[in-house]
Design brief:
alpha+beta; 6-stranded antiparallel beta sheet; 3 helices; 29% strand
Length: 177
Amino acid sequence: MKSKNFPTIVIIVLALALVVSVVFAAQDKYTLQVPNGLAFSDFRGYEDWPVVSIAQTEEVLKVIVANQVMIDAYRAGIPGNGKPFPDGSKIAKLQWKPKKSTEAPFSVNVPDTFTQAFFIEKNSKRFPDSGGWGYALFNYDATTDTFKPEGSGTNCGHACHTRVKAKDYIFHPYQKR
């Protein structure tokens, strides 16, 4: 009798082992870091941050969100009042490929596939060579449901942001509501 149940028990144990390995193999995005740069974990909770602005290029839809430190600074008039954002300010630019809505009775693009999370953090002591800002880009692969850091260091976005140095290196204003 015992030998007849053995194959069934082996199959059940292997199936459970497979399920457990799949669960533990799922990526924890908060363990990622750009080499020599910012960590994804530095932006924990970004999914719930308030919206600052939205933008659209021909390739992507962008939603720009910020932590409460940065939202408070925007509401105090920064950078329009000539003051810099305070240390601790954080912003995330979240990007999707657009698609035409098939449900709306008018022509409108809506988010389709998520593509990137781009993070920026103000820390004047840590990032003195890039206007006080550190940058990190994480590309998202929808087929594997994983993120991958792009580049290295904390100044990967600084070159583009020098165009808006007078606005403390931030492109997007806080939109009126």
